[in-house]
Design brief:
This protein is an alpha+beta fold. The protein contains 7 helices and 7 strands; from the N terminus they run βββαββαβαβαααα. It is elongated and about 65 Å long.
Length: 216
């Protein structure tokens, strides 16, 4: 895998209380939240955001003066920045400028209102190291796809397929370059050749050379 935010009441947006996506967290007013359109969808699993690409961005944001929290939505399409109370306009402009370099564009108007409403629900948003959960989910998706590829081209017993998928998930999270080594515990030589084709296909997806298959 590659390295690489209560309903909003009309007229009351700037003073309505927002939670910051964590239980028992103090309320944050809407004027202390900025939301950005973000290009952080996972190429290999386009239904979720890319944990490995978003994690350094979120962690770097939280190291910036004036930033209290930084969050990514599950889809990888929005970043929410919660500002510290003392953050001034100059501090905010600097962070917004840095995000533009990462191709993240600040939302306003209706788009911002909708994103704030979603963020305030506290569901489906990830902060900092929490995006590792998205990377784990990505590993599960890729592992299942690799096994399906092998199954489509050769006979593979159910118990072997299940064991292989679990092994692939664990390996993708820790040592993705060892997929073939792990597979040799489950596959014969001909099946390993099929797996190599599947891995090449996954690399093409990660590199944007072809789209991920529709798995909905």
């Amino acid at each position: 895998m590659k390295t690489h935010l209560t309903a909003v009441l009309a007229g009351g947006l700037l003073c309505a209380p927002f939670t910051n996506g964590a239980e028992n967290a103090p309320a944050v007013t809407a004027d202390r939240i900025s939301v950005f359109k973000a290009p952080l969808v996972c190429p290999a699993a386009p239904q979720i955001g890319c944990g490995s690409a978003s994690k350094p961005i979120l962690l770097d944001l939280e190291r910036q003066a004036g930033v209290a929290e930084a969050w990514l939505n599950r889809a990888g399409t929005r970043i929410a920045v919660v500002w510290k109370p003392e953050a001034n306009a100059e501090t905010r402009r600097k962070v917004v400028g840095d995000l533009k370099e990462d191709r993240a564009i600040e939302l306003d108007g209706k788009s911002r209102d909708e994103a704030l409403k979603d963020f305030s629900s506290g569901k489906g948003w990830y902060r900092g190291a929490d995006v590792d959960r998205l990377s784990e989910e990505e590993a599960d998706i890729i592992a299942a796809r690799l096994v399906r590829w092998v199954q489509a081209k050769t006979a593979l017993r159910k118990d072997k397929a299940e064991g292989l998928q679990h092994a692939f998930s664990e390996t993708l999270r820790t040592a993705p370059n060892r997929l073939e080594d792990v597979a040799r515990q489950y596959l014969d030589q001909e099946q390993i050749k099929i797996l190599k084709e599947a891995i090449k296909d996954e690399v093409a997806i990660e590199n944007g050379e072809r789209p991920a298959p529709n798995e909905n």
